[in-house]
Design brief:
homodimer, 238 residues, alpha+beta, Glutathione S-transferase Yfyf (Class Pi), Chain A, domain 2, globular
């Protein structure tokens, strides 16, 4: 099977998919999309991903979008090792957990975009910035760019987002069993959450684990997996 | 098997799940949650759905949340008739379509909440309204209530939402094949979309079908299905 992955090293959705591919033992041809020069909005990339976001996985010539959807797809076409619960009820809980985590992405973005995007936009003139925005496919994402680049998030907004992400950890603390989030078995729920926890550990709330022993143990177990090293999350902060 | 459905007649997620249950030929014990008196925020209901939203399906004593997740669960435990594509690529397309439709719910809410909620809130004093808000489980939903009840959406905002919903129909127009959205076969993608199209037809853009013949044919075929009548969407506008 031919798998071509278009991704960015620091993108949380890309990190999720790389970790999933490594856990499956699937090899792929990787292409890094350079977000710093807006390569995700280039005509060539928009042809395979009209939303202009990473990652995209191309399997035997057909493009797939949305990291959670792609992971479920890979689990269906390559069932071993299984990374989704076999029990339908646990599977439903897993899907709702991933949905909840995905819904927290705006909180992560407030921290992430300060580094790459806001810094890049600061070097542009207003005219250059508006010219760049023309290539952003959706109104919603144009607004997000304007906000992050020209009107940086306040400390109060960052605090709100930190609280939302810590509330995720609090939920995890009550769910973790055998160092896994769903049904006591490592899988997509854990993989989907890992990029978020990586950013919490690195910058957003490094001391969060001190009062959350189950999360601490879960994170230690996850980061010791060989696949985690191969997925190469790398540092977010240069 | 014992299925107990907690739902509201006009809620789009409830309509989706009722239609899915009828297509599966699954019978259930139905309980209507009276949104007009905030029954979804009552302690009894919050015990089975901590988010305070409808629907909830209880299967053999275990509560399930999120209509799209519940539909996939039902398709797994009752495989006939299949309402998800067998092909993994089509299944991925279906999941991304449902995800996209779910992401449009804020646009539907702008039209829906004008009727029930805004009218109900208008009859409350400020103190009664704030007291009611205490039972709303999330900050996000409290804000949505304040907005809809005390600061009604403007015509410009309603126009934006109408445009977003018509853009969904435009996409559908290019997807429909054999009166189905994915892979030429009726299933969850169609069922998930039906409550949205029902509101477009009824109030938001009744003439939308005139210029979208594939959507018109799709909608006619869907609404002629016996399960659609049994799911009893009913009128949204009293």
């Amino acid at each position: 099977m031919s798998l071509v992955l278009y991704h960015a090293p620091k993108s949380s959705a890309s990190r999720r998919l790389r970790l999933f591919l490594e856990e499956k033992g699937l090899s792929y041809e990787g292409h890094v999309i350079n977000l710093a020069v807006q390569e995700q909005h280039s005509p060539a990339y928009l042809r395979i991903n009209p939303m202009g976001v990473v990652p995209t996985l191309v399997h035997d010539g057909r493009a797939l979008h949305e990291s959670s959807t792609i992971c479920e797809y890979l689990d269906a076409i390559r069932p071993e090792p299984p990374l989704r619960p076999a029990d339908p009820y646990d599977l439903a809980q897993m899907r709702n957990w991933v949905r909840y985590v995905d819904g927290l992405i705006s909180n992560l973005i407030r921290f992430n975009w300060r580094h790459g995007m806001a810094a890049g936009a600061a070097r542009m003139t207003e005219a250059e910035f508006e010219e760049m925005l023309k290539s952003v496919p959706s109104e919603e994402r144009k607004e997000a760019w304007r906000r992050a680049a020209r009107n940086p998030y306040t400390e109060a907004e960052l605090d709100d987002s930190r609280r939302a992400l810590l509330a995720m950890l609090d939920q995890m603390e009550g769910m973790i069993e055998n160092d896994a989030l769903i049904g006591g078995r490592y899988g997509l729920a854990d993989i989907a959450t890992a990029p978020f926890v990586r950013r919490i550990e690195e910058e957003i709330a490094p001391d969060a684990f001190e009062t959350r022993p189950n999360c601490a143990s879960w994170w230690q177990a996850l980061t010791r997996r060989p696949a985690y090293a191969r997925a190469d999350f790398g540092p977010f902060l240069a």
